TrEMBL record:
Residues in D-glucuronyl C5-epimerase C-terminal domain copies: 394-586
Protein name listed in UniProt: heparosan-N-sulfate-glucuronate 5-epimerase
GO CC, any one term: Golgi apparatus
InterPro entries assigned to the protein according to its UniProt record, in alphabetical order: C5-epim_C, C5-epimerase, Glce_b_sandwich
EC number: 5.1.3.17
Length: 597
């Protein structure tokens, strides 16, 4: 029943929509505008009221403005009669519809909610039309064969650190801190890996960044302002054999050595530092529109993650010790400012980069500095921060990257206790580490972490690994190693991509292990893939099978992820099952459905 109605409605879309949005009537050739003051005018008022009522029921399409416009335009004297008619919906409730000749028109706001379809008015090429869409997500067609040394999926479009569920980018680690499942913030390996992969991918796709060197101590020093109780000198550094800047000043706030700047557009600061205990530095940003709006970003020797008060934002760079090795810090100043304002719930509207400038930089305490730059981006530094985090925070004995939060996946499944591993997190980590191994020209610390990271793929999820078996038989790498198993599809495919990445980039023995796991996973994927197909979309997991519950239907963005993943896999595995399935699933996104009996 519903399907037939939908088809009829699609065919008469222009007409159907015109009923709801009176302003469209004059655009639709076959429908004639109802005139004001006669029957149509009175009905307009009723429609207005009816639509207001519907909006209270959370309808998302706005009608009042269109109706207002239509009233103003009015004028047309040709009349085609339509009648109001009640539509009884499944015998459960009624809504107001219209009857015109043999056709019945339903309000789009109703269709939107009933069928979860989307629509908006759009004006271009000089006229307005209504655009109906069955889904809201995008398919990315791969440009060529997937290459583990290249862009990861379409992650060049990701901007992990600006997401609301990222509390801040840790200034100690250089990686994002998530608040998704625990509000105080925690390191979430999957998110950290995505941050790394997005920066790696952006490095390959974005235009060349601009860099301005503020200080490199190679020639004369820049024009530092040095208070009388402070010193600043240029010296040869024993560790690097380079000239660096050495400074010392009281630790108190005002009396630092500073640079006065007037720098716009480039907001990624990076510098090499070696700071003594209690030292700190501050970057001063100013609004270009309201010059009295000045923000101070303080980077302090502390384990503090982030704190902020009024115009002051604090990020801890960890404990400092003048005897430690040189560190390179990379900070996106605009992200740091936004996170500081969000920390105080003051981020109503994000400052765009074009509305800010950097006006100063101050160092306090004592230490050494080199290579201070402001750049459009420092994607590779941020990528390597993620890769280094993965090397430093792996459980050495198991090879897992622990998720330090409790997680409930579905009612009826046991909670995952803090410390669980995710096949998706492991796979993403392999994708990062394989790229770092490749890009660094063979740094074995990345390879070693990646190979160790394969271990959980061989350990049952019931025993602390990520391996489940469908019907005790078909192996599956679990994004969430739940009891009973959940068989999440997108996380499994991300795990496969990580295994593939390592298999391509690693030398022989390591490559063999990854290849074997990848092949095993591809075989499972082909066996189980169609269990996710509902005939009009996909399911996110197989909980309907393992829990006996209703299927967990994939939202359109997850459905699109399934499609994008299959299209990508199809560039490295030519089994037609992948492409044929992907094409059918693409069809679902524009309302096509599998045939019925
Ligand atoms: C990408 O990284 C290379 C160094 O490997 C650098 O020269 C280039 O400017 C970077 N490009 C972008 C867009 O980040
Ligand atoms: C750092 O600050 C603490 C607390 O203010 C102080 O006790 C300590 O002496 C300082 N250390 C140095 C090396 O200045
Ligand atoms: C500053 O950059 C130069 C050029 O990349 C490098 O040789 C030098 O070691 C860097 N300085 C420090 C202290 O790392």
């Amino acid at each position: 029943m519903i399907r037939i109605n939908l088809k009829v409605l699609l065919l008469s879309l222009c007409a159907a929509v015109a009923v709801v949005t009176l302003s469209l009537w004059s655009r639709c050739g076959e429908v004639v505008m109802a005139s004001r003051g006669r029957k149509g005018g009175a009905q307009t008022a009723e429609w207005d009221a009816a639509n207001k009522k519907m909006r209270n029921g959370q309808m998302t399409v706005k009608f009042d403005s269109y109706i207002g416009e239509a009233l103003e335009r009015g004028g047309s004297s040709d009349l085609q009669a339509y009648e109001e008619i009640d539509c009884h919906i499944n015998g459960e409730y009624s809504i107001g519809c219209r009857k015109e000749g043999g056709e019945i028109y339903l309000p789009f706001s109703f269709l939107h909610k009933y069928f979860e379809v989307y629509g908006k008015l759009a004006t271009y090429d000089g006229y307005e039309r209504f655009e109906w869409s069955h889904s809201y997500s995008k398919v990315y067609y791969p440009k060529g064969k997937y290459d583990p040394r290249g862009v990861f999926m379409y992650f060049e479009n990701y901007n992990v650190e600006v997401r609301d569920r990222v509390k801040c980018v840790s200034a100690t680690e250089g990686v994002p801190v998530s608040t998704q499942w625990e509000i105080q913030g925690y390191y979430y390996p999957t998110q950290i890996a995505q941050f790394g992969l997005s920066h790696y991918s952006k490095n390959l796709t974005e235009p060349e960044p601009r860099h301005t060197v503020l200080e490199d101590a190679e020639r004369d020093l820049a024009r530092w302002i040095i208070p009388s109780d402070a010193t600043l000198t240029r010296e040869l550094d024993g560790q690097t054999g380079n000239h660096v800047v050495k400074f010392s000043s009281p630790e108190t706030y005002q009396n630092g050595v500073s640079l006065k700047l007037d720098h716009v557009l480039d907001f990624v600061l990076s510098l090499n530092v070696r700071l003594g205990m209690n030292s700190s530095f501050t970057v001063v940003l100013q609004s270009r529109e309201k010059r009295d709006q000045v923000f101070q970003l303080h980077y302090i020797c502390s384990e503090l993650l982030i704190s902020a008060q009024d115009q002051h934002v604090y990020h801890g760079i960890g404990n400092c010790d003048q005897n430690q090795l040189w560190r390179r810090l990379t900070r996106d100043l605009v992200v740091d400012l936004h996170k500081g304002l969000a920390y105080q719930n003051r981020l109503k509207r994000k400052f765009s980069r074009s509305k800010l400038k950097v006006i100063g930089l101050t160092f306090r305490g004592m230490g050494q500095l080199d290579n201070i730059t402001l750049s459009t981006s420092e994607h590779l530094s941020q990528f390597y921060d993620a890769a280094q985090w993965l090397v430093n925070h792996q459980d050495a004995s198991t090879g897992g990257w622990p998720n330090p939060v409790r997680r409930r996946v579905a009612p009826g499944m046991a909670d995952l206790e803090p410390g669980w591993y995710s096949a998706m997190g492991q796979g993403h980590a392999l994708s990062v580490l394989a790229r770092a191994y490749h890009h660094s020209g063979g740094d074995t610390s990345y390879l070693k972490a990646a190979v160790t990271g394969l271990r959980p793929f061989n350990i049952a999820s019931s025993a602390g690994g990520v391996l489940a078996r469908f019907l005790e038989h078909i192996p599956w790498y679990e994004e969430y190693p739940t009891q009973p198993a959940s068989f999440v599809l997108n996380g499994f495919i991300y795990a496969l991509l990580g295994l593939y990445d390592l298999s391509v980039v690693a030398p022989s023995t390591a490559s063999q292990q990854a290849t074997q796991l990848f092949k095993q996973g591809m075989a499972s994927l082909k066996q189980l893939l169609l269990l996710y197909d509902t005939g009009s979309g996909t399911t996110y997991d197989l909980r309907h099978f393992t829990l006996g519950s209703a299927p967990n239907l994939a939202r359109w963005d997850y459905h699109a992820t399934h499609v994008n993943q299959l299209l990508l896999l199809a560039t490295i595995d030519h089994d037609p099952l992948l492409t044929v399935t992907a094409e059918r699933w693409i069809g679902y996104m524009s309302g096509k459905r599998a045939a019925h009996n």
